[in-house]
Design brief:
Length: about 130
């Protein structure tokens, strides 16, 4: 293996990647890119989701700052080794059982943290996730 190659634990055809892709591809200008051996999902060039943390089935995302502490109280949420230094979190997940409603909300918040104004305008004109107002 060369110095710039990485082990791919969750290839594009993996059930977890396919499920995350089905959610992520609904966002404006979403691009799927293999980077450092992982499938990443981007708003243009900026990452908003990654699949897998080493061999752990997980989705890595940028949390809403107001929800970060509450998310970290969950047993299935953790700070991933590299991205965690930049504020990212990860949630352990089984492709078959979810919690897919929560993943949808986390992906939406993550996308909104990195998207450009034009991407947000397109998203707000045709929302992917309905946000309930209190």
């Amino acid at each position: 293996m060369s110095a710039d190659s990485h082990v791919v634990n969750f290839p594009p055809e993996h059930p977890l990647v396919r499920r995350v892709r089905s959610l992520a591809e609904r966002y404006p200008e979403c691009a799927e890119v293999m980077a450092h051996g992982r499938c990443t999902f981007r708003a243009g060039k900026r990452q908003f989701a990654l699949v897998g943390v080493g061999e752990t089935s997980a989705v890595v995302f940028i949390p809403d700052p107001d929800e970060r502490d509450a998310l970290l109280e969950r047993d299935d949420v953790f700070v991933p080794p590299y991205e965690g230094a930049y504020g990212w979190l990860a949630i352990r997940i089984d492709a078959a059982s979810g919690p897919w409603d929560l993943i949808e909300e986390l992906l939406d918040a993550s996308y909104r943290r990195v998207a450009l104004v034009r991407q947000l305008k397109a998203l707000d004109a045709d929302p992917v996730v309905e946000i309930e107002e209190l």
